[in-house]
Write a structure and sequence with these properties.
The chain has one domain: Thrombin, subunit H, CATH 2.40.10.220. The chain has one helix and seven strands, in the order βββββββα. It has a six-stranded antiparallel barrel. Strand 6 and strand 7 form a beta hairpin. The longest helix is centred in the last third of the chain and has 12 residues. The relative contact order is 0.21.
Length: 111
């Protein structure tokens, strides 16, 4: 059974996971929704477990520059494939950041 309260969008975005200013892991988002995200290809530097409070930093490339969006989240799932996170501490700024992340469309490289 799916416990999500919002739709998810398939997005492949670089994400760093921090806790108390220390970088714990780097991964790629598999999907992102207003309620949370699932990260795979996670390279963990420290132990991450259920209920850890973390900060996610999404790295979006826009043109020739990178834009970072930081969101607070709680670890809700850890498995062999990746990490499930639930966003919290919502305010209008967080909501706008999530809208920007979900509207993000990777620009394909021209060969």
């Amino acid at each position: 059974m799916d416990n999500r309260w919002s739709n998810r969008k398939d997005l492949d975005i670089s994400v760093d996971i921090y806790q108390h200013g220390d970088k714990l892991a780097t991964g790629r988002s598999r999907d992102v929704g207003l309620g949370g995200a699932y990260l795979d290809s996670v390279q963990v530097n420290h132990n991450l477990s259920i209920d850890n409070q973390v900060e996610l930093v999404f790295h979006l490339v826009e043109g020739s520059s990178e834009v970072k969006y930081s969101l607070h989240a709680r670890v809700v799932r850890v498995d062999n494939d990746g990490i499930g996170l639930k966003f919290h501490d919502f305010d209008t700024g967080v909501f706008r950041s999530l809208q920007q992340i979900m509207a993000y469309k990777e620009v394909e490289a021209i060969h």
